Amino acid sequence: xxxLTGNRDTLERHFTSQLLGTAERWSLDxxxxxxxxRGKVAQVRVSGRQGQLRExxxxxxxxxxxxxxxxxxxxxxxx
Length: 79
Fold this sequence. Notes:
By secondary structure, the protein is α+β, with helices and mostly antiparallel strands. The protein has helices spanning 2-5, 8-14, 35-38, and strands at residues 15-21, 25-32, 41-49, 52-60, 65-69.
């Protein structure tokens, strides 16, 4: 994914973007540039804390919304 790899040029070619918040707690709002996609997807918001992506929220033009929360994996110790 261009978001996760930091490919800003490709991301900005396909979306208009607005970064909000601080380095501690941030969100990036993405609106599709392509008219066909924009007819279905109103906005994608990705948010996180520091360098960790924690949530992806997709808002459709009909008002439906999908939210995926991402929790960091912690290493478990074996006894």
